[in-house]
Amino acid sequence: MAQNSQEINYESDRTLKNEARYPGALILSKIDNQVYFDHDGIEVWCDNAVFYKEANFFKAYGNIRMQQGDSVSMTSNYAEYNGDTEFAFASGRVLMKRPQTTLETDSLFFDRLKQEAYYRSGGKVRDTTSVLTSRIGRYYMEQNKYSFIDEVVVTNPEYTINSEQLDFYSESGYAYLYGPSTIKSETSTVYCERGFYDTRADNGYFVKNSRIDYENRVLKGDSLYFDRETSFASATNNIQVIDTINQSKVTGHYAEVYRDKDSVFITKRALAASLQERDTLFIHSDTIMITGKPEHRIIRGFYDVRILKEDQTGENPMSGRSDSIYSDQKSGLSKLINLGRFGDKKPVLWSGLNQMSGDSIHLQSNPETEQLDSLLVFDNAFLIQKDTIEGYNQLKGKILTGYFEDNQLREVIIDKNTETLNYLRNDEGALISINKTLASYIRILFQDQQIEFIDYINAVQGKMPPEDEVPQNQRTLAGFNWRGDERITSKDGLFEGKPVPELTRIRGIEMPEAPEEFFEEREEDDLLLDQNSRLKPEILKNRAKDSLKYKNEKVQDSLKDTIEPVVKTVKDSLTGNQE
What helix, strand, coil percent values describe the chain, rounded to 5? Predict the structure, then answer.
């Protein structure tokens, strides 16, 4: 038995020598008890061994078991160990066990000085909840961290992760994804090129080209948070929520998606639009909420709603404003509503230079083509058209019904207690008089957005005094309110007067810092194992194709510190306390 602690100690039932075949070696064999080695805290049991005592090196065969303290155990069919370099190699059904994980591979390198294990011929790690496989892997025992590259797959009963490179912390179950990565389940697919996933809590944080694909929705954003257990996802900055069934899209800078409830909440410059090439209806408001199954989506907008519907020419868009909006994608019905939060500012709609307002406005579109079909203005209906030179033509009543042709107003009917005030001009455009008329029913026809014909039913003809006999205070009907300065003429006008939102600072996920190479440069006569090893020295060298990807510059915070502020940011955003 060796007395020096740096020398390998051994016990064997049988000890032989065969100088012809194994010069300078002891041949150790099991009879009743396995061959036993002990060296600085590592213990090895095997059926047979060839021990080069002077070189402090042995090769072990059959039912091998290695034990390092209480934390690491390994079994294999074959193993080598150098006591001077404290470097080991194992092959043939290698199984390394740690308290939280087990590693299976065909061959494994183990550096006791660095407390690192490495494989490059394929390996499988079993965690308490998942199975992780890759072609190349490196295990850092002091950090309880695995670094996997090349064909990385994490299999869980609920999902599968595929990644180019993945770091996994076995104690916490945290996984960091680098390069193109996907997390697939029956209900969703997450894609990112940089991300974090808690494999035990089933939630994650994703940046860099991140997106979540549901059965009928796609969520994109600079930063995504995803919780599988609650079927909840949120997105921050430059987000898109695409409805693949109804061909519509909502954008903004903060969104929440509740998959089980079929609902989406979006704010910060929220804008909803169909994906039709023509006749698109844009809806902007401070907050947009979408609910309902794919076949019956409901869009609700709250606070300062602005809408725009461009015609095919783009010259005379229809636009409107209201406090709130309710839009049913199945029926094509949109309701502009005043809930009185900002005073008595009635919903208003412009078709060309025709302004229509009332207590509420209903727009009916064709659900298939999204072209406007008709509109209804309920209570205190008012139609105003700016005169070609000065003044305003005005028509009012209780209910207004309008009909569209190619998204342009073609006919309007005003019913009950109607009043009109018209500027009458001769062929040269000179003003003749201002006519006021009462009727029970009025029908108006339009040509190129201008009033072409008015038909009065049961009219009470008013006076037609010359212009100079009509004082200014009698040139408008009661309730007149021209709001032409609020008219929206382009998509940019939907946001006019609104400050550009200050975007939340996104905490990125850095690439990890490069560790030391697993195989260090050595002199020719300074071997990691021994000249009698099965492995040639060139095998024990780093290869470029097996290298992990790391960032170039140093980061201030380690990766393990990254998740804490990320989780805090997500929780704060859910409670409205966004950074």
Answer: 5, 55, 40
State how far the alpha carbon of 257 is from the alpha carbons of 157, 209, 211, in Å. 23, 18, 12
User: Residue 537 is encoded by which pair of tokens?
Assistant: 């020295």
Q: What is the pTM of this model?
A: 0.79
- CA-based torsion, 66, 67, 72, 75: positive or negative: positive
Given a contact cutoff of 8 angstroms between Cβ atoms, the answer to whether 410 and 404 are in contact is yes
- Taking CB atoms within 8 Å and a gap of at least 24, the contacts of 333-339 are 333/362, 333/363, 333/364, 333/365, 334/281, 334/307, 334/362, 334/363, 334/364, 334/365, 335/360, 335/361, 335/362, 335/363, 336/305, 336/307, 336/360, 336/361, 336/362, 336/363
Residue with tokens 């001077």: 84
Beta strands in 141-247 (DSSP E): 145-155, 160-169, 174-184, 188-198, 203-214, 217-227, 232-243
Instruction: Determine the 3-state secondary structure of 494 from DSSP.
Output: helix
Beta carbons of 444 and 453 less than 8 angstroms apart: yes
Question: Cα–Cα distance between 54 and 200 in angstroms, integer?
Answer: 49
- pLDDT tier at 276, thresholds 50, 70, 90: low
| 116-119 vs 136-140, strand pairing mode | antiparallel
d(CA 256, CA 120): 42
Q: What is the pLDDT of residue 29?
A: 96
Phi, psi of 78 (to 5 degrees): -145, 150
Helix (H, G, I), strand (E, B) or coil at 105: strand
State how far the Cα of 331 lies from the Cα of 296, in Å rounded to an integer.
8
Q: Quickly count: other Cβ atoms within 10 Å of residue 89's Cβ.
A: 23
Structure tokens at 21: 């075949």
Report residue 303 CA to chain centroid gap.
26
Three-class SS state of 437 = strand
Given the structure tokens 């797959």, which residue do they identify?
153
Q: Give CA–CA dist 321/334, Å, rounded.
A: 12
DSSP category for residue 565: H
Q: Residue type for 431, please?
A: L
As a whole number of angstroms, the distance between CA 206 and CA 44 comes to: 44
Kindly report, residue by residue over 151-184, the tens digit of the pLDDT.
Answer: 999 999 999 999 999 999 988 999 999 999 999 9
With H, G, I as helix, E, B as strand and everything else as coil, classify residue 570.
helix
Element (H, E) at 356: strand 354-357
Q: Which amino acid is at 174?
A: Y
Is the pLDDT at 255 greater than 50, yes or no? Answer: yes
The dihedral over CA atoms of 26, 32, 37, 41, expressed in degrees to the nearest 10, equals: -170
| pLDDT tens digits for range 118-146 | 999 999 999 888 999 999 999 999 999 99
Report the sign of the C-alpha dihedral through residues 564, 565, 568, 569, in that order.
negative
Query: Is the distance from CB of 290 to CB of 259 less than 8 angstroms?
Result: no
User: At CA 112, angle to CA 107 and CA 113, rounded to 5?
Assistant: 135
The pair of structure tokens assigned to 198 is: 């808690």
